[in-house]
Structure formats: C-alpha cells, structure tokens
Specification:
The complex is a heterodimer of chains A (353) and B (178). Chain A has 353 residues and is an alpha/beta fold. Chain A folds into two domains: 5-192 and 224-235, 3-Layer(aba) Sandwich (Rossmann fold), CATH 3.40.50.970; 240-352, Rossmann fold, CATH 3.40.50.920. Chain A contains twelve helices and 14 strands. Chain A has helices spanning 9-19, 34-43, 57-69, 80-95, 122-127, 144-161, 171-175, 216-236, 256-271, 289-296, 313-319, 339-352; strands spanning 5-8, 24-27, 50-53, 74-78, 100-106, 137-139, 164-170, 177-180, 240-243, 250-253, 276-281, 283-285, 301-306, 326-330. In chain A, the strands form three sheets. A seven-stranded mixed beta sheet of chain A has the order 3-2-4-5-7-6-12, with helices on both faces. In chain A, strands 9-11-10-13-14 form a five-stranded mixed beta sheet, with helices on both faces. In chain A, strand 4 (74-78), helix 4 and strand 5 form a beta-alpha-beta unit. The radius of gyration of chain A is 21 Å and the shape is globular. The model of chain A has no long low-confidence stretch (mean pLDDT 97). Chain B has 178 residues and is an alpha/beta fold. Chain B has helices at 17-30, 77-83, 116-122, 129-141, 146-156, 164-176; strands at 5-12, 34-39, 49-57, 71-74, 92-96, 110-114. Chain B has a six-stranded mixed beta sheet with strand order 2-3-1-4-5-6, with helices on both faces. In chain B, helix 2 links the parallel strand 4 (71-74) and strand 5. In chain B, helix 3 (116-122) packs across helix 4 and helix 4 (129-141) packs across helix 6. The two termini of chain B are 28 Å apart. The model of chain B has no long low-confidence stretch (mean pLDDT 94). The chains are: A alpha/beta (353), B alpha/beta (178). The A-B interface holds A 4-6, 31-32, 115-116, 171-172, 175-179, 260-261, 263-265, 267, 336, 338-340 and B 22, 25-26, 29, 34-39, 41-42, 60-65, 67, 155.
C-alpha cells in the first residue's frame, strides 16, 4: 500500500487528473476552486503538459472543446458563476460528441452569490448544462479520496461514451484536507480516438468535429442516436452507496458534502433507536433510481438532505414513483447544515409517517 | 479504543492557525486515525479571523465542520469570545493568555492559560506561539502519541525550510513544559 498523506480536495483533483493522463488544462481562477488551477500551473510544465490561464471562462471551455476534438484528454475547472459561463461550450461538446472533464467546486448562488460551500448547481449539472437536448455524466464525490478515484473514472467514461463528464464538488470538499492514497499505476494508456480531428499526413479521410446540422431530419436522428446511448448509460452506470438502508424506516438521500453530515445524523438517530439509513448517489446523472426503487419496498419515507432549496427532491419522487412520502431538509447560500438540525427533521418527519 | 477529538483552532490570519491544525491532523494520521481538516476561507483570512476545524477519529468522519468542539485553541480575543460557548461540557480550552486578557467564565470546561506569544519571543522563536499551544494541547489531551507528533512536525515543514524544524520542536517542548 502506498503512503496516505494529507491533501486538499482541490489539489487532489488536479493530481488525480494528471495521473489519469490529462495533459491539457485550461482554466480561469475563482474561489473556492483556485488551488486546483494553481496546482496545475506548477505541475503541468514539469510533465510536458499544457497549463493555460485563458482570458475568460468562455475561452477556457472553448479551448477544452478544441483540444478534445483533436483527441487529447483535456479538462477545465471552475466554481458556480464560472460554470455558467462555460455552459455554451459544454453544449457544443455534447453536440459534437466530444469527451471532456469539467469540475465544478460549487459556491452559493444565484448570481455572484457567495464563496461558501453549496450544492445549488444540481439542476444545472443534471438538467441543463447548456442549451439543447443533451445530458452529461455527473459524479458527486463525498471524500477527498473519492474525488481522486472518480476523476479517473469520469475521464474513462467520457471517452467511452464520447460525452462531457462533470465532477460536482463544493467549497467544503475543495478546501478540506483528508488522507489520500494514489494507486501506483504507471503511465496511463489512453484509448484510441479514430474520430479525432488531428494530423494524419493524408493517410485517411479527414475527420470533422462539428455541432452544426442544418437539416432538421439529420439533427433529429443524431440526437435520437445520442439518447439511445443515454438509455444504455442509465441502465448500466448508476452508482450509489448505501448505509444502514436494509432495515431503515426513514431513508435519507444526500450526495457530496451534505451526505457526510447526513451520515452523522443517521448515527445520532440510530443511537436514539430511530431506524434511519442513507442512500448517497455517487452518479447524479445517471440518477441511481434502481437503488431508491429497491429501498422504497421497505422504507416508510424518504428525506432528501441538500445544500440548496431542494433541487434533488423531484428526482427522488420520480425514482420511487411517488410511492412513499418524500420530505426535504436543506440549508443554502453557503450554510452547511449541522447533524443536529437533520436529526430534528428526521424526528419530525418520523412523527408524520 | 481511544476517544475522538473534534477541535476548533482560531485566531488572526498570520498566526499560523491553519499550520497548527495541519500538524495536529498529521499527528492523528501518523497514529493511523481518520482525520479531517477544514479551514475557514475567504475575505476574513486577510487580516481578520482565521479558524480551522480538525477531527481525529477511529471511525469515518461525517461533517468536517466542527460546531460543538471538545477542544478549543484560541489565539485572539474575538475568536475566544466567538467560540467559548460552543465548547462541549468537559472539553478542553487552551488560551494564549498573553493576547487574551480574559478568563473562561464557564466552570464545566478545563481551561489552560499559556502566554505563548510572550514565551515564543523570549525563547527566540517569534511566530511559533501556535506550535507552543499545540505542545500544551498534546500535554493536556494526548490527542496523538509523542512519536506521531514529532513526525507530524517533520512532515509539515517543507525541505526548503528545514532550518525551521528545530525551532518547531523547541516550541513543542516549551508547550509541553508549560
């Protein structure tokens, strides 16, 4: 086993990306994500990679589009307001079937909002990371170690399905330090990309990477083909972790930072003899509906715990087909809930069931 | 099974609050514990108050934000006043009594007063009041083993500042003997 050492979430994300074979980073500074870009600026030149601080978020995201279209593993990172600026390019990536990694270390919104941790970009990440008919893969790590592990998976799945992937983190996970371990894997072998628009010395037909289709029927059939791919992803790539769900009356549903607090609240509830459990979605798209459906057979109710105004609640209701009551507890604007607040809600909700 | 520690360290930006928290965290890590370290970030760090939460546990750590600490290390008056009422009954409070001219009014916590900033100056290690207080905290709570603590200091001091290592060890000893 390699040594466990302390690392900030933002720096761990960057190091994990480099180890996953990413040699092209395009970014623009914003709190609470800046350590990620700063780390890249130090490391990329040393490994023969590219670190580029663009003139704007929009430019950085379009550079990722260009680099990915040329077939290299590329990424960008930002925090909430910056991600909004990048959504145009993310839509173009989806429309061009180009893989890429986008990291969002969320802060409070809307607008410039605040700089403290938040999960208020759930809707943006899972429903509309830009205009048009498309989805992106969304991963929600809850520990610094999981951030490391998911970066590599996100890149691989983005390549496999030729679509953008996002790590949806937050200011708490980005700023905190926890022990991490990097598996020694050696130089990563990346998949061939025969579709890439790169130099070929006239040895093959030229490739075009494009999102403009002026014939409605052609665009429709392309979008439909993409949605068939999405169905396959929904059937095979759902991920969630379960904690004390089997005999739970009340199942909390929480991801990322709020799942950590919810985990503590479940322990406190159990100490009082309340049968609480936790489902923690690791993929937010595809949403882990299978896991929730299964829990709905035994649970009496679900409590969605989020650091926003309840953006995941509808997904929970849809997953269980509204077969059980779904309650919500959240703090927003950059406030982190306390385990006690969540426990109080569990007790109140339990009384209504 | 040893006990869990949920700590808050607080003071002005520039007093080495975050560094002290990192030393404590590595102390726990070196003993094979689960740990988390969460800093305050943002405008308050520029000349205002800085604080960080450190958790040391045998179990998976839930929220890394410590709301009701069982250890408070305070290096200035605003931080002392902000956090003193949040400490759990039976908890430990370590105060830099050179900078905080106030006593703990609660009688349900164990309070220790160390004029750390003055001691640091007198011993030629100005700026290491933070580590003196870590030494005192170690003496009063034993949050990690002594070996793990010294290894933690070695881990936290980068190679280019190797000359600082002896000063930091000296600061730990002063704290342990105060």
């Amino acid at each position: 086993m390699s040594e466990r050492f302390l690392m900030k979430g933002n720096e761990a994300l960057a190091e994990a990306a480099i180890r996953a074979g990413c040699k092209h980073f395009f970014g623009y500074p914003i709190t609470p994500q800046t350590e990620l870009a700063a780390y890249m600026s130090k490391r990329m030149p040393k490994i023969g990679g590219t670190y580029l601080q663009a003139e704007s978020e929009l430019a950085a995201a379009n550079m990722v589009l260009g680099a990915s279209a040329a077939g290299v593993r590329a990424m960008t990172s930002s925090s909430s307001p910056g991600i909004s600026l990048k959504t145009e390019a993310i839509s173009y990536m989806a429309g061009s079937d180009v893989p890429a990694l986008i990291i969002n270390v969320q802060r409070g919104g809307p607008g410039l909002g605040g700089i403290q941790p938040s999960q208020a970009d759930y809707w943006q990440a899972t429903k509309a990371t830009g205009h048009g008919d498309f989805q992106i893969l969304v991963f929600a790590p809850a520990t610094v170690q999981e951030m490391v592990d998911l970066v590599s998976d996100a890149f691989d799945m983005a390549d496999k399905y030729r679509m953008p992937a996002m790590i949806l983190a937050d200011g708490m996970l980005g700023q905190m330090m926890e022990p991490v371990e990097f598996k020694e894997e050696g130089e990563k072998v990346l998949p061939e990309k025969p579709w890439a628009a790169c130099g070929h010395h006239n040895q093959r037909k030229h490739n075009v990477v494009n999102s403009l289709y002026l014939t409605p029927q052609a665009l429709e059939s392309l979008v439909k083909e993409r949605f068939e791919r999405y169905e396959k992803i929904k059937a095979t790539e759902q991920r969630a972790s379960e904690y004390l769900v089997d005999d739970a009356d009340i199942v909390l549903v929480a991801f990322g930072a709020s799942a950590r607090v919810a985990h503590s609240a479940v322990d406190m509830a159990r100490e009082q003899g309340i049968k609480a459990g936790l489902i923690r979605p690791i993929t937010l798209w595809p949403f882990p509906t299978d896991c929730l459906k299964k829990a709905a057979q035994t649970a009496k109710g679900f409590l969605s715990v989020e650091m926003n105004m309840g953006q995941m609640v509808d997904d929970v209701k849809l997953a269980i087909n509204c077969s059980k009551p779904v309650d919500f507890f959240g703090r927003t604007g950059g406030v982190i809930p306390t385990p006690q607040e969540i426990l109080d809600r569990i007790i109140k909700f339990g009384g209504e069931l | 099974m040893s006990k869990d520690f949920n700590m808050v360290l607080a003071g002005f930006g520039g007093q080495g609050i975050l560094f002290a928290g990192k030393v404590i965290a590595y102390g726990g890590l070196n003993d094979g514990k689960e740990i988390s370290w969460l800093p305050s970030y943002g405008p308050e760090m520029r000349g205002g108050t800085a604080n960080c939460s450190v958790c040391i546990s045998d179990k998976t750590i839930g929220s890394p934000l410590v709301v009701t600490p069982d250890v408070l290390v305070a290096l200035n008056l605003p931080s002392f006043e902000k956090f003193i009422d949040t400490v759990k009954p039976g908890g430990t409070v370590i105060v830099d009594s050179f900078l905080i001219n106030k006593k703990v009014e609660r009688d349900d916590v164990n309070a220790f007063y160390v004029p750390a900033t003055k001691l640091a100056e007198e011993n030629g290690i100005k700026g290491l009041a933070n580590i003196i207080l870590v030494g005192k905290l170690f003496k009063e709570t034993g949050f990690c083993s002594e070996e793990a603590l010294y290894k933690a200091v070695e881990k936290c001091i980068p190679a280019r500042k190797a000359n600082m290592l002896e000063f930091n060890k000296k600061a730990l000893e002063i704290g342990m003997n105060s």
